[in-house]
Amino acid sequence: MLKMYHRHQESGSSAAYWEAFGGEQPLAEHLRFCDVDPLRPLFTRVLAPGAVMLEGGCGRGQYVAYYAARGAKVIGLDFARDWLRAARRENPSLMLCAGDVGALPFADHTFDVYYSGGVVEHFEEGADRALAEARRVLKRDGVLLVSVPYLSPLRRMLAAVGHPEWRRIDAPGVDGTPQDGLRFYQYAYTVPEFTRLLRTAGFRVVETQGYAMVWGLYDIAPIDRAAAWFAQRRRTSLRRRIERRTNPTRATLSCDGNGSPRVPLAKRLIVSEDDTVPGAGWIVRAGRWMCANMMMYVCSPVSGT
Hints:
Blueprint: E1 2-6, H1 15-19, H2 27-34, H3 40-46, E2 52-56, H4 62-68, E3 73-78, H5 81-90, E4 95-98, E5 111-117, H6 128-137, E6 138-149, H7 153-161, E7 166-168, E8 183-188, H8 191-200, E9 203-211, H9 213-217, H10 221-244, H11 265-270, H12 281-291, E10 294-301
Parallel strand pairs: 2-3, 2-5, 3-4, 5-6
Antiparallel strand pairs: 1-7, 1-8, 6-10, 9-10
């Protein structure tokens, strides 16, 4: 297990940190990514029409808006109230509520699907409480989709040579007083490590999928600096494009004859990470194993727990 820190006045488990990070981006900008999301095929397969899904840690609400528009009943929960207020201003029809993923305000066995994307790793005391709550609110035949940072071969190599903001540990634990200006940010797990946590919480892992390969490469310092510059340029460009649109919330990619987004080949490989591209899918699969930033776990509740 890798414990990752950052130089910020707030820890990664603080609502204040998240409300100061990315909240200025309009919902339309977040929605645009959903069409090319590497996880889109997985959601399409799991979310049957009429399914009831909870997103624990919904942020700006893009998944709530995107999949509700496609026939699912989606409720978003987050502790960053400023983000929820911003999402409601842009789309008052969204079903959103403030709350704690470790103490969900819902009855037992309520949801067909529970999605938690990049959330439970930010609790310094560990993910156990949040996973137990996910098990409680899921139906007995429900599906848990939970993603956490992946302790990939690339990260293991970088940790072995030394990284000032990373520490290899055996188990999660609260540090206490911050040292050297560092505050806790998140944990990264190998697949066996997080699988054991899920098993303890009463889940069986059905499949896994690594994703966000480019973000995984940002851990290499020179790439990290170049990526920060590029990301800033990209945000500025997207903001200008959004401002030119009269109805930005409807912005999307062009579609093919079946109504699916038409995505250029390079974007299919680099952004959508489509491993079905003939002759090149193996590159995506190798990249997921080697340097994916996140690992998605598709889980089913174990009966009798």
